[in-house]
Write a structure and sequence with these properties.
Layout: H1 12-18, E1 36-40, E2 43-47, E3 51-55, E4 61-66, E5 69-76, E6 82-88, E7 93-100, E8 103-111, E9 117-125, E10 130-137, E11 141-149, E12 152-164, E13 169-175, E14 180-185, E15 189-194, E16 203-208, E17 219-224, E18 229-234, E19 239-246, E20 249-257, E21 266-270, E22 273-277, E23 283-287, E24 306-309, E25 313-314, E26 325-331, E27 341-346, E28 350-354, E29 360-364, E30 369-380, E31 383-392, E32 397-403, E33 409-416, E34 422-429, E35 436-442, E36 446-454, E37 459-468, E38 473-479, E39 484-489, E40 493-498, E41 508-512, E42 522-528, E43 537-542, E44 547-552, E45 559-565, E46 582-585, E47 597-602, E48 613-618, H2 619-623
Parallel strand pairs: 24-45
Antiparallel strand pairs: 1-2, 2-3, 3-4, 5-6, 6-7, 7-8, 9-10, 10-11, 11-12, 13-14, 14-15, 15-16, 17-18, 18-19, 19-20, 21-22, 22-23, 25-48, 26-27, 27-28, 28-29, 30-31, 31-32, 32-33, 34-35, 35-36, 36-37, 38-39, 39-40, 40-41, 42-43, 43-44, 44-45, 46-47, 47-48
Length: 629
């Protein structure tokens, strides 16, 4: 579903049903206990001590659901329908409905077993085409549940992220435009988090308790308005605090006392109306044109649309949390592709080897490795075998590995470099000369090219050339067919050099990190080789926005596609984010990967929260994004 600007919530039905006394927060129909109320484009919703009631604009009851619902949130959709979510407090069950006109199109309920829900809020991601709910608990617990993806509602909500929140979390709201989740920590503080499921878990402080900040009481509810204002409801004394967006920051604007109520519990935002409800069921309204519902859309921030790919396999996670897995390489067993292997660097300890079920078969404890790459057919101990190479950061060396016909990996030659902080690496095997080379780089921008030679029994390494970029590089990939080297300068972009050992050492910055399509850091690089008259493409990890970009390998080096690796709800595999290294192969890797695969490091491994791992996407998903010739 491609989301667009939504219709704002209307207030006429609420005014008729509640007999509003219009101005200045005057109490409305105080004899009736109302625990939550909300007016939407499909009618008004009120929660009492016995039921949630849905009424039309004339006050006629359309439908009602028994239970005590104290949290109620709605989000209109582009097709004119409204999705509504509520927590039934007696059973701690999430209820949700999709409503259109006077009809329930979809409905469902699910027990929330991991936390007692204090608040919930919607998030609709246009770039990832996902509709999700945040569930906030009071003991530092929170979850993000997926309800719909690509316009298709799931049979049941799927928990896709656990949130580490303050112990006294009480309320939430979402800025749909910027993808920010706002959270109240009782009377202590207001925070902002990233709303995207694969985004960074960091938080930003907005306000704190007086005298250091403006908060003077416990915040019980939050709403975010169309004019980018965060409205925070303080319980006692009843008070509204407003924070206005200024760039990426929220700045306190004003306080407004709610004289009609002694205490306040919930907010309901509609077109020009802010409804305030107390815990005892008293309610009042404020009328102001600023109280408009924000459009539930994250606008496209690039001229190149964001596509979505889905992993169908993941490797087992490392046993510890934190930054560990960095870069993958893939080895094909040509006789039995199902027996192929994936090699991955664990920057704390060595190299892991996985089979095509994602199971770990070997771990080579060689030390702190960073990048790895491999090539085929270099004679070792009297027979043709395959070679892998990785940078060893503990002693600034390069470690070579031999891979036999069964996919068994063993250490071979290790050779020293003059680097003080070795980092990235890739291999190059010239189709013209048949020679095999290692490109290794240092954080100071120096790149050394080593020729790997074989005497039939052992390998040796010799420095043959030096290259240089202005600042820290890491990822690189060689185009063996065309004798080219592509090198990522992390904060700047992608360089192209001639790869031949006798070529000019001058390079050209051909792709810039523009903070739009390619967002620094520029990390892993891989090549989709051209064949049968079709051009080659360069794949880059755009770490700054958890995405990947496919570029032409010849001038004008145009970006032809960008995508994210999004969660596979059917298989229960989360997406990838903060990717360091990646790999791409057009060789068959067996069942499910007959045409090859895209393999990416996942920096934040969700569902469940675990150590890092690798995600595998069948290559045909990427091929579908290629421009038609």
């Amino acid at each position: 579903m491609k989301y667009s600007l939504i219709a704002t919530l209307v207030s006429a039905a609420m005014l008729m049903a509640c007999q509003a006394q219009s101005q200045n927060g005057t109490a409305i129909d105080s004899s009736a206990a109302v625990y939550a109320e909300l007016t939407t484009t499909v009618g008004q919703f009120q929660s009492s001590a016995s039921a949630l009631v849905w009424q039309d604009g004339k006050g006629a009851v359309i439908q009602q659901w028994p239970g005590v619902f104290r949290r109620l949130k709605a989000l209109p959709q582009t097709d004119g329908s409204v999705v509504l979510a509520a927590i039934e407090t007696e059973s701690n069950q999430l209820h949700w409905w999709q409503l259109q006109g006077k009809t329930v199109q979809r409905s469902g309920k699910q027990l929330v077993s991991q936390l007692v829900v204090d608040d919930l809020c919607w998030y609709q991601s246009a770039e990832n085409k996902q509709l999700s709910l945040f569930l906030i608990g009071d003991r530092g617990l929170g979850e993000q549940w997926l309800l719909a993806q690509d316009s298709k509602f799931l049979a049941a909500p799927l928990s896709i992220r656990n949130l580490n929140l303050p112990t006294d979390a009480t309320a939430c709201a979402v800025d749909q435009q910027k993808g920010k989740l706002y959270l109240a920590e009782g009377a202590t503080a207001l925070w902002s988090y990233n709303a995207e499921v694969e985004a960074d878990e960091g938080r930003t402080l907005i306000d704190v308790q007086a005298p250091l900040g403006k908060l003077t009481g416990e915040v019980k509810a939050l709403e975010f308005t169309a004019d980018s204002t965060l409205v925070a409801l303080q319980e006692e004394p009843a008070l509204l605090q407003s924070y206005q967006s200024q760039g990426d920051a929220l700045v306190w604007q004003q306080s407004k006392a709610i004289t009609a109520l002694e205490s306040a519990e919930q907010l309901g935002l509609s077109a020009g109306i802010l409804s305030v409800v107390s815990e005892e069921g008293q309610h009042t309204q404020f009328k102001d044109k600023a109280y408009q519902t924000q459009a539930a859309i994250l606008p496209e921030r690039s001229t190149l649309p964001m596509q979505q790919l889905s992993p169908t396999l993941e490797t087992v996670a490392v046993s510890y949390r934190g930054d560990a897995i960095d870069d993958p390489a893939v080895w094909q067993d040509a006789k039995n592709p199902d027996n192929s292997r994936i090699l991955a660097t664990d920057k704390r300890a060595g190299v892991a080897v996985y089979n095509m079920k994602g199971e770990q078969l070997q771990f080579l404890h060689v030390g702190r490795v960073n990048n790895i790459d491999l090539r085929y057919g270099l004679e070792y101990q009297g027979k043709k075998q395959d070679i892998a190479a990785a940078t060893l950061r503990a002693d600034n060396s390069v470690q070579l590995f031999v891979i036999d016909a069964q996919g068994q990996v063993k250490t071979a030659l290790k050779f020293a470099t003059p680097f003080s902080d070795i980092y990235g690496l890739c291999l190059y095997q010239s189709k013209r000369s048949g020679q095999t080379y290692v490109f290794a780089n240092d954080k100071d921008g120096t790149v050394l090219q080593y020729q790997i030679s074989s005497n039939g029994q052992n390998w040796s390494a010799k420095e043959v050339r030096r290259l240089k970029v202005p600042s820290q590089p890491e990822g690189c990939v060689a185009d063996d067919q065309n004798d080219l080297l592509f090198l990522g300068e992390e904060d700047v972009g992608i360089w192209r050099f001639a790869a031949d050992a006798k070529a000019d050492t001058k390079g050209e910055l051909v792709i810039k990190a523009d903070a739009d399509v390619l967002v620094a850091d520029v990390e892993g690089l891989a090549l989709l080789p051209g064949k049968n008259g079709k051009p080659a493409y360069l794949l880059a990890s755009s770490q700054g926005n958890d995405s990947y970009v496919l570029y032409q390998t010849t001038a004008p080096y145009k970006a032809v596609a960008r995508f994210r690796v999004r969660l596979n709800a059917e298989l229960g595999i989360d997406g990838s984010s903060e990717t360091d290294g990646l790999e791409l192969t057009t060789l068959s890797l067996g069942n499910g990967f007959e045409q090859g695969a895209v393999i990416v490091q996942d920096g934040r491994n969700r569902m469940p929260e675990q150590g890092q791992n690798l995600k595998l996407v069948p290559l045909e998903q990427l091929l579908e994004l290629l421009p038609t010739q």
